[in-house]
Amino acid sequence: MSHVRIVPATATHGTAPPPRPRPAPTWWVWLAAWPVTAVFVLSNAATPLYVLWQREIGFSKGTLTVVFALYIVGLLVSLLVSGVASDRLGRKAVLLPALALALIACLVFATATSVAALAVARVCTGIAVGAVVSAGMAAVTDVAGAHRKRLAALLASCAMVFGAGLGPLLAGVFAETLPGPTVTVFVVEAALLLTAAVTVLRMPLGRPARVISGRWIRVPSVPAEGRLPLLLGIATFGPGITATSFVLSLGPSLLAGLLHSSSRVLAGVTAFVMFAAATGTQFAVQRVSRRTVLTAAAVCTVAAMAALAGAMRAGSVVLLVAAALLAGAGQGMGQLAGLSLLNAAVPATRLAEANAALNVGGYVPAGLLPVAAGYLSDAAGLTTGSTIFAAVLAALALAGGVVVMATRRRIVEPG
């Protein structure tokens, strides 16, 4: 009698599917957003301190907006490579050097005695932020997994705007209440960045799928299925972040002119309230259709510019605060909708590059228009410069709203 050995199917070679990785717990999805928050705290921490540096070093409003915009130059240069590098090498390989560069920026800020030092610190900050908005936001989506993409988009977007608002609030309060007004906040921020580095090292991320070919340094792009989501995101996120960038760069000067006060706490609180509006709005609209959110983002930015022009003409602090709140809401909703649509349409192997493309489209006008407004304000006065800026940006936001309305039927809602 012959003996037949029955081998279970799971033991045969080449027939068993590889085991699926266990999804990370939800608390890890939240924690994965922390490095994004920590780096964005640095992105705007200098905002309330510029009036101190202006007095100590001596430079104009035009120079101030250039120093501010150098951050965006560094960010855009970073976005040319960080998205591709993240998709090829993995999120950690991009995030850890970015955090190290952010720590260097803290050191330079804390010891700055010249415009050149401020410029170097802003460029380093921009490069770090560029890496985080591509690799960091994609890392949140990777940790969340396919079944939690909507949560991932919400947390990544909120982490960005919450950190952007927390930085100037901490800087303003520390500068008014603690010794070393231009030093203390960067010491605290360095500690936050170290905790973010530990988080990245422990983050449950798999190895990247090495399927991408082409140049390492290139203008970020998306696959064909992601082009419409990218266009819609840029059309609303771009004007929104340009509005908030203007408030960050010239907001303290506007407040000083209207209130005859250079309070660093007030400048920090204004920035924080603006980004708190961006954060709260995103949680409020997380269940709303992305078509509606995109439209509302455009409407809020147009309304913000109307309030800004009114504030300058009437000398109204109330209208200026309203402009900041509306600008924050416009950026927050445009950013959330853009990230959500990209998360749903773009495969994971191109997601960091897609995030980079969205931010390139948003930060280019955010770098150019406030600089132009700053120099125009030096030449023609702050009221005239701010009013012209508001009119131009309102027109761009309105055009973005028209694009959204024209393509409403083609927008595929995320699952």
UniProtKB/TrEMBL annotation:
Disordered as annotated region, ranges: 1-20
Record-annotated membrane-spanning stretches: 27-51, 63-81, 93-113, 119-140, 152-171, 183-205, 226-250, 265-285, 292-311, 317-344, 356-376, 388-407
Residues annotated as domain Major facilitator superfamily (MFS) profile: 1-409
Membrane topology, record value: Multi-pass membrane protein
First-listed, main subcellular location of the protein, grouped into a coarse class: membrane
Keyword Transmembrane: yes
Subcellular location: Cell membrane
Gene3D superfamilies referenced in this protein's UniProt entry, alphabetically: MFS general substrate transporter like domains
The keyword tRNA processing belongs to this UniProt entry's keyword annotation: no
Keywords: Cell membrane, Membrane, Transmembrane, Transmembrane helix, Transport
Coiled-coil regions, chain positions: none
Pfam families named in the record: MFS_1 (PF07690)
The name this protein goes by in its record: MFS transporter
Species of the source: Microbispora hainanensis
Lineage: Bacteria, Bacillati, Actinomycetota, Actinomycetes, Streptosporangiales
